[in-house]
Amino acid sequence: xxxxxxxxxxxxxxxxxxFQSPRPDEYAPMPxxxxxxxxxxxxxxxxxxxxxxxxxxxxxxPAFLINAKAEYGDCSSFFLAGQLFITAFSxxxxxxxxxxxxxxxxxxxxxxxxxxxxxxxLLTNEEPIHLRHRRLMQSPFHISKxxxxxxxxxxxxxxxxxxxxxxxxxxxxxxxxxxxxxxxADILFGTDISxxxxxxxxxxxxxxxxxxxxxxxxxxxxxNLPIPYFRKFEKAANELHDVATRIVNERIASGVKRDDLMxxxxxxxxxxxxxxxxxxxSDETLTLILSGHETTANVLTWIFSYLSQNPKYWxxxxxxxxxxxxxxxxxxxxRVILAAPLSGAIFSEVLRLAPPVWISPxxxxxxxxxxxxxxxxxxx
Length: 380
Fold this sequence. Notes:
About 50% of the residues lie in helices and about 5% in strands. It has helices at about 55-60, 60-70, 90-100, 110-120, 130-135, 145-160, 170-190, 195-215, 230-255, 260-265, 280-310, 315-325, 335-340, 340-355, and strands at about 75-80, 85, 105, 360-365, 370, 375. Helix 1 crosses helix 2 and helix 8 (about 195-215) crosses helix 9 (about 230-255). This is Cytochrome.
């Protein structure tokens, strides 16, 4: 696959923030959405139909989807803002959408909203840019690097909980938010960014709320209107962009090379000498802050919640932790952690019960079959 040639060096950036940036030209063209009038002769799956359906979806999206699965099975259809949506619940269909037939889809409405905050990072990118970024970002996630990160995480966690006392009541949600942010800051930037902590956390909270609540087709038209709810969305996105841009530009201007994740991204290059641009590193920085901070803190909070209801597992976890930490200095420490059976089982079960990312919209680029059902081009 050929890519456009880019400069093999980095420059400080002065460009449009992601919130107002257009969809990259390199992406596949967006297919025309399917309306009811377009479905003549098409065999779409059954599903809920109601004049109030969009309001029900907006009020409680998880409950809406759970009810759709319970009543119509692994594949159902419905209309939001007049456009056709089709659910894919079965493991087979999810694998086809995200792996075996991923070339038949582009990322959907939620990702369009997310791109306004995170720019074109790995989470939001489409091909062919996504493949280029993934190749350039492989080295920071080699197992030897992850072992180093794991030791850093362990040290910061010990420091964070050193002031906890037996019998003390701890607000786990905020504590996990604070801990994961400190970990992301250290591993990503190798420096203290505590001055930006509240700014980033508040802006990320607003941005995630708006992404989840305004993903319906057509709501993006309200982004530039003087409506406080939507203006706060843009303000939060721009705040995050400003912080990431400043940190990246300061690092580039300093000329200092560090062995943190940003340092690895700045030095990463293809065999042809191609590197990520400063803007691309800023976008990947925001993506890593989101994935390593908010979502991780949410999972950890749910783990503590479920363990509080199942205290019988604490002794086994403590024993397993002693065995794992005894190998803290091993070169493959990350493998030891990932192979811990009880911890792994608990994490997997909590991810099943309370996934931090529980919906992943796509758009069909062509007619495609999922789980034996025909999905027409343009369907969400």
